[in-house]
Design a protein that fits this description.
Layout (H helix, E strand, L loop, with lengths): L8 H26 L2 H4 L10 H18 L3 H23 L15 E2 L2 E2 L8
Antiparallel strand pairs: 1-2
């Protein structure tokens, strides 16, 4: 059976979503690196983006770009760190253990509702 034909708009949407992921993640990473709370937490009523979440957004966006270009194996390699980190974070939360993966790699950023030295937001 031949593969289904996709409309021309669908690949463009994938590319737009990939670039949006990369831009949002890169903006948050820049906020962490330069200690700018406005880039880490865009709205005072929203939780700030954790550093590891921003890295994951950039990697997922890069993986989508690679898939868009037809580089499946490279996309899988880019996705592996995201899957590994997500699995470790989920396991550490489920078994209530401290693996040290939610601690910052950088200095803390202080925003109106986020003033802690951890990457993961905890009220």
């Amino acid at each position: 059976m031949p593969p289904a034909q996709t409309p021309a708009l669908r690949p463009r949407i994938v590319l737009i979503a990939a670039l949006a992921n990369i831009l949002i993640g890169a903006a948050a990473l820049w906020g962490w690196l330069t200690l700018r709370p406005g880039l880490v937490q865009w709205n005072g009523h929203l939780a700030p983006m954790p550093f590891n979440g921003a890295v994951s957004l950039v990697l997922v966006g890069l993986g989508l770009v690679l898939l868009y270009r037809g580089l499946f194996r490279s996309a899988v390699l880019v996705a592996l760190p995201v899957v590994l980190y997500s699995t470790l974070a989920a396991v550490s939360q489920l078994v209530h253990t401290h693996l040290g993966i939610n601690h910052p790699l950088l200095l803390p950023v202080h925003t109106p509702i986020f003033s802690t030295d951890r990457c993961a937001y905890r009220p």
